[in-house]
Amino acid sequence: MSKFDSLVDKLIERKSELTREDIEEQIKQKKEKIGAGYLTDQGALFLIASDYGITLSEPQKIELSIKDLYAGAKEISLETRVLNLSPAKQFSRKDGSPFFLRTMTVYDTNSTASVKLWDEKANLPGIENLKPGDLIKIIKAYVKSDLDGSPTINIGSGSNIETTDTKSEIPTIDTITKDVSESQEGQKDLVISGMIDGAISGMEFTNSRGQPGKALRMRLKGKEGSGIKVIIWGKDESSIPNMISQSAKVRLLGVRVKSGNQGLEIHGNDATIIEIDGGEIEPIIARVLSITTTETGKSMIVAVNNKKDIFNISDLSNSTSICAEGDVIECMPSKIYGNSVTLDENSFVRKLDNDESIPSLSQFRTKINDIKINDNYCIESIVLKIPERREVQTKTGESILLSEMFVEDDTGQIWVKGWRNQSRLIDKCELGEIISITGLKAKEGLEGRIELFLTTFSKIIKKN
User: Fold this and answer.
1) Topology of domain 69-171, per CATH?
2) Residues 131-165: pLDDT tens digits?
3) For the domain bounded by 284-352, which CATH number is listed?
């Protein structure tokens, strides 16, 4: 009789109303919930026994693999590689006493697991120096069930982590890195790579518990050319370099894939490691297509270079006051995130002679029929419907303004929409007017159709 069959018999002996078929069905359900790639039949059996308040015992291996882990296992040892590591955080117990917790993700040949380091173990000597791919030994840890039912390794007072330089069959980080285009819904603990597709931006928000939060947003483009939205929760711009080119290569270690409103999304957390190879940043030489001024006096510029790369330039120091729309400028920004550029008092800006290789606004405009989702555009069109304004209520109960108009050129029609302050730009347009619009972002709207949205860089000029 196999060890697994022996354990099944032990469970039936303790829980006589169960049949072998019942147990097999519950094992199937456990593996479907957690993921067959993360759990063996034997591991699922230990979780099921734990659900019934029963502890199954077996002779402990000297070293286990991640697939062998089950809730309730004690003094386990295993060899793994580091995937990522979060900062240590301080929390309070119910009695008010503080404790520290750090989480780490590890992997071996077939599986991944979460590791929790408690109290003094959260600040083990050398723990901050661990890098992705480092080979480690986890010694005398215990295993508990996480919120989603998966086994989690816990490093407590009697446990330890040691680095090792022995040869191992566990694959390296480079070996397990996948192109972002290979992402599939439900995958977790991934290492993915891609290229920056557009801008990188930070955001602040208030979570469901009323606590402030932060996140980084970007898009990554894979080998197949399509882009995927990325959100790294708990990270801000301090996590990335100040200079990131539009063609920068990015690798994210420790992310998951989920379905969003507009297809698949990549989500990470404060343990996710962001590696960016942006190459050498050179001065930007571009033609100014439009300039708008915010209520605080900041200049928002849309510009294009000779490769037809579009830039959204935020001028915080009035460095571009020397130029006008149509001028060619050279600038060395203080910050570049993809196509998002920031100028401040430390930036360099100068006006250049005209360069015919850089397209003018009339040459750069896109026909409506050629617009694709997620790119930035400038168009010229005629207003076909009187602009409409309405209030939309968000999930948080906030009421925000939305204005929209239907426009056309000689290739097709499209909706143009503006939220909040941008709605005022649309309100000024009238039926039958020919308008030029810069700084538009194409997104997927209702029924899967493409719609154009005004941004803080947008400008509408009436032609007639």
Assistant:
1) OB fold (Dihydrolipoamide Acetyltransferase, E2P) (2.40.50)
2) 999 999 999 899 998 877 788 999 988 888 988 88
3) 2.40.50.140
CATH of 365-462, one of 3.40.630.30, 2.40.50.140, 3.20.20.70, 3.40.1500.10: 2.40.50.140
Given this model, what pLDDT does residue 62 score?
Answer: 46
**For residue range 103-132, what is the model confidence (pLDDT) as tens digits?**
999 999 889 999 999 988 888 888 888 999
Residue 445 has pLDDT above 50, yes or no: yes
Task: Report helix, strand or coil for 114.
Answer: strand
Q: What digits encode the pLDDT tens for the residues 74-104?
A: 888 899 999 999 988 888 888 888 889 999 9
Class of the CATH-defined domain 177-274: mainly beta
pLDDT digits (tens, 9 = 90+) for 375-391: 899 999 999 998 998 88
Asked whether the predicted pLDDT for residue 15 surpasses 90, the reply is no
Q: Where in the chain is the domain with CATH 2.40.50.140?
A: 69-171, 177-274, 284-352, 365-462
Above 90 in pLDDT, residue 374? no
